[in-house]
């Protein structure tokens, strides 16, 4: 594999990690906006299949976006990688705040 | 000591181990240097620990739902919601760890910025795993499987 393709694959891996994480959080946002905070009785009776669907869909979206990025990339610019680092580091406080505020 | 308590403890221990282990690739790759063989083993094992902790959580979830969840919510609803939060963040941890691993192994030697970005992914995963571990410890302290 050439270095250009390896760079594209590496960057796509990061895109997968970031996209699937954001997709999961956005799915959860959609559920909360639609239904509000679940009452304890409803949370207790909820089947785990919803989590499996949410996780699988998020992973699938991450994979699709990563594949599209891989196809479009031939050379990864330093600017794009820096942006990726910033987004990844910002994800920590945002994801934590979001998950705590909206379990 | 029931099997479920053993599995719960193992899940917690592996989760804490994963939390610490996920920091290692972040430190190794912070300067973007090409990976040594030991570094590759470290990255692979760190990611495997995170996946294993996640998988164990899924394995014992149905028993948690049957034996713990209802009582947990009745005793302390906040702890019950914290468990849900733990699940969400755990998925994010695994996604970042897997993505970081792909980036770390695929990045060519001449691309230090990609390894630094992978280090950022592992740092984020480690920090979120720390939150997950704290939430899990608190939930277990409130209520867990019966002895």
Give a topology summary.
The complex is a heterodimer of chains A (103) and B (147).
Chain A: H1 3-35, H2 40-45, H3 49-72, H4 78-101
Helix pairs in contact in A: 1-3, 1-4
Chain B: H1 3-21, H2 23-28, H3 37-67, H4 69-75, H5 77-106, H6 112-142
Helix pairs in contact in B: 1-3, 1-6, 3-5, 4-5, 5-6
Helix/strand-derived category of chain A reads mainly alpha
Distance between the termini of chain B: 5 Å
Give the beta-strand count of chain A.
Answer: 0
N-C termini distance of chain A: 43 Å
Give the chain pair forming the largest contact, with residue counts: A-B, 42 and 46 residues
As a whole number of angstroms, the C-alpha radius of gyration of chain B is 17 Å
- Which term fits the overall shape of chain A? elongated
List the secondary-structure elements of chain B in sequence, H or E: HHHHHH
List keywords for this structure.
heterodimer, A: 103 residues, mainly alpha, 4 helices, 84% helix, 0% strand, elongated, B: 147 residues, 6 helices
Structure overview:
By secondary structure, chain A is mainly α. Chain A contains 4 helices and no strands. Chain A has helices at 3-35, 40-45, 49-72, 78-101. In chain A, helix 1 runs antiparallel to helix 3 and helix 1 runs parallel beside helix 4. The longest helix of chain A has 33 residues, at 3-35. The termini of chain A are far apart. Chain B has 147 residues and is an all-alpha fold. Helices cover 84% and strands 0% of the residues of chain B. Chain B is built from 6 helices and no strands. Chain B has helices spanning 3-21, 23-28, 37-67, 69-75, 77-106, 112-142. Chain B starts with a helix and ends in a 5-residue tail after the last helix. In chain B, 50% of the residues are buried. Chains A and B meet through helix 1, helix 2, helix 3 and helix 4 of A and helix 3, helix 4, helix 5 and helix 6 of B.
